[in-house]
Amino acid sequence: MTKNFTPEDLLLYLYKETSLKKSAAIKAALESDWTLREKLAVLKASMHRLDKLTESPRTEVVLNVLNHAKEHLTEEV
Description:
Elements: H1 7-14, H2 20-32, H3 34-52, H4 59-76
């Protein structure tokens, strides 16, 4: 009987944060459970996409923060 593993279990497995016993159980389940392999593949693909994301604030936002800090700094002096 195959144990049902949660997405959280699979994420911990991917990040090598599961116990040796649980890792072995997941590995064995992956060998015989096609659905579990597909779930793991989806998680891996999602992680890969997240690794590629690069976001940065708009220049306007950065300038607003700097101006706000500058105003408060001059008020204190």
